[in-house]
């Protein structure tokens, strides 16, 4: 996972450089702006974890910048720097929505301490925002599931939600496994506590254990500071291990020990720590075949699959297709301030009979495309057929005889998605059918510049 990104806004280049040096030395990533207008532009483009801004700046001062940032991101965490120390000024800054303030001149320890608290709050705000969005999407998704299969599935999920039993969710890619897992968490007694998602397939093999279990300072080369693992972050809450079939065997051993004993031990730590975590795992892979091949531990499988839920493919529940399509079309139109498009009866029939190899995720991506390109228009079979036929996933694209450079192809697709969305990472991730977290990892991996 990338280090927190801090945006420093100050018209004094000396202060900016000193702060940047201190923060980078402490392990943060840093962006700089010389006035409020530039800072606002960078904030919109880069979406930093925290904004550290001077109060007095030319063009757009700290107060105006704070108000502008909170308009576009009500969950923003902002620390204001000022040379004017007074109770009145501090109260005014906090009332405006700032997290905290620093009085110049300040000591490095004071800056780092305030920043560390700010980052913790920013992470909590981000989790809260994600949970609110997930709650709304989950409620909508459940309402749109008309098929007997999905109604029965959600009844099963909700009946076991308030237990602490581990759950294994299997189903094809794009069927909504994370969506179902969120619903289980929301209906459990842990709903007000942490909801942590780890995509096992997005983690480099050498970092899996550090990501899951954490590490102490100096535990290995590059561990300049201690870091809590994702399991510890989920204490008293729920942990979703997405794509559990991609977890390396050595990490499977440690995960099994955690499930058996309820304890974790960070890399480099002297003693284990007890945690209370409900685990939900998800996969599109055939774990039974992997067990026979020796690539997935049988004892781990039985620990994870106390309850097993299977998500049917979209083609197996065609009565859900049009309700979902209409919902996605309406949501996309509203989020982009467009007049909604509408399916003609013949268009709806085509959608219902299409195979949807990418399942709900593919349907959602197409509906967003149609909402943007065909606002206020009727979606006829001619329009839909052209789009569906041009999609590689719809065509069941075949590997050329000469093969392909997968890394190069992946990099090109990411760059095309960013170009099409004008650098908006959230929209680019949606187009690619991956999470924002996975996209950030790929951007770091291929060193793709998004500025």
Can you walk me through this structure?
One of its GO terms (molecular function) is ATP binding. The radius of gyration is 24 Å and the shape is globular. The mean pLDDT is 86. The protein has 451 residues and is an alpha/beta fold. The two termini are 19 Å apart. It has four domains: 5-123, Rossmann fold, CATH 3.40.50.2300; 144-312, Rossmann fold (3-Layer(aba) Sandwich), CATH 3.40.50.300; 315-390, Helicase, Ruva Protein, domain 3 (Orthogonal Bundle), CATH 1.10.8; 406-446, Orthogonal Bundle (Arc Repressor Mutant, subunit A), CATH 1.10.10.60. Helix 6 crosses helix 7, helix 10 (249-261) crosses helix 12 and helix 14 runs parallel beside helix 16. It is built from 19 helices and 16 strands. 32% of the residues are buried. Helix content is 50%, strand content 14%.
Main sheet: strands, sense, barrel: 5 strands, parallel
The level 1 CATH classification of the largest domain is Alpha Beta
The computed structural class is: alpha/beta
Low-confidence stretches: none
How many structurally independent domains?
Answer: 4
What labels describe this entry?
alpha/beta, Rossmann fold, Helicase, Ruva Protein, domain 3, Sigma_54_int, DNA-binding, AAA+_ATPase, ATP-binding
Secondary structure elements and their pairing?
Blueprint (H helix, E strand, L loop, with lengths): L4 E5 L3 H13 L3 E5 L2 H11 L3 E5 L7 H11 L5 E5 L4 H10 L3 E4 L4 H36 L4 H14 L5 E5 L5 H10 L8 E5 L8 H6 E2 L11 E2 L1 H4 L4 E5 L6 H13 L1 E2 L8 E2 L3 E6 L3 H7 L4 H7 L2 E5 L9 H15 L6 E2 L1 H9 L5 H15 L4 E2 L1 H10 L15 H15 L4 H8 L3 H11 L5
Parallel strand pairs: 1-2, 1-3, 3-4, 4-5, 6-13, 6-14, 7-10, 10-13, 15-16
Antiparallel strand pairs: 8-9, 11-12
Helix pairs in contact: 2-3, 5-7, 6-7, 10-12, 13-15, 14-16, 17-18, 18-19
């Amino acid at each position: 996972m990338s280090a927190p990104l801090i945006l420093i806004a100050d018209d004094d280049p000396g202060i900016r450089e000193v702060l940047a040096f201190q923060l980078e030395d402490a392990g943060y990533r840093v962006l700089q702006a010389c006035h409020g207008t530039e800072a606002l532009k960078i904030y919109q483009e880069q979406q930093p974890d925290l904004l550290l801004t001077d109060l007095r700046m030319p063009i757009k001062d700290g107060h105006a910048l704070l108000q502008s940032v909170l308009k576009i991101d009500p969950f923003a965490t902002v620390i204001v720097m000022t040379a004017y120390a007074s109770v009145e000024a501090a109260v005014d800054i906090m009332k405006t929505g700032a997290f905290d303030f620093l009085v110049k001149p300040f000591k490095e320890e004071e800056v780092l301490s305030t920043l560390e608290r700010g980052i913790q709050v920013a992470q909590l705000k981000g989790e809260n925002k994600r949970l609110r969005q997930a709650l709304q999407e989950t409620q909508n998704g459940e309402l749109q599931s008309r098929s007997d299969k999905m109604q029965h599935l959600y009844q099963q999920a909700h009946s076991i939600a308030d237990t602490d039993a581990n759950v294994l969710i299997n189903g094809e890619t794009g069927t909504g496994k994370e969506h179902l897992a969120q619903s289980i968490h929301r209906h459990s007694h842990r709903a007000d506590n942490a909801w942590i998602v780890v995509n096992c397939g997005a983690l480099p093999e050498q970092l899996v254990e550090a990501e899951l279990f954490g590490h102490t300072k100096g535990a290995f080369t590059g561990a300049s500071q201690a870091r809590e693992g994702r399991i510890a972050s989920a204490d008293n809450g729920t942990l979703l291990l997405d794509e559990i079939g991609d977890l390396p065997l050595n990490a499977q051993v440690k995960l099994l020990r955690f499930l058996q004993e309820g304890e974790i031990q960070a890399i480099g730590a002297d003693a284990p720590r007890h945690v209370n975590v409900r685990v939900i795992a998800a996969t599109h892979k055939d774990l039974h075949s992997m067990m026979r091949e020796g690539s997935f531990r049988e004892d781990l499988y039985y620990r994870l699959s106390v309850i097993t839920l299977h998500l049917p493919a979209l083609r197996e529940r065609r009565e859900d297709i049009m309700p979902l399509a209409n919902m996605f079309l309406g949501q996309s139109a509203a989020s982009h301030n467009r007049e909604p498009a509408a399916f003609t009866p013949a268009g709806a029939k085509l959608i219902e009979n299409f195979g949807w190899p990418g399942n709900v995720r593919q349907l959602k991506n197409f509906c967003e495309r149609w909402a943007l390109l065909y606002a206020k228009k009727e979606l006829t079979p001619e329009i839909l057929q052209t789009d569906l036929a041009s999609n590689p996933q719809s065509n069941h694209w075949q590997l050329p005889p000469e093969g392909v450079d997968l890394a190069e192809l992946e990099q090109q697709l990411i760059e095309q998605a960013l170009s099409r969305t004008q650098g908006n990472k959230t929209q680019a991730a949606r187009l690619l059918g991956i999470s924002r977290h996975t996209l950030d990892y790929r951007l770091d991996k291929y060193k793709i510049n998004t500025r």
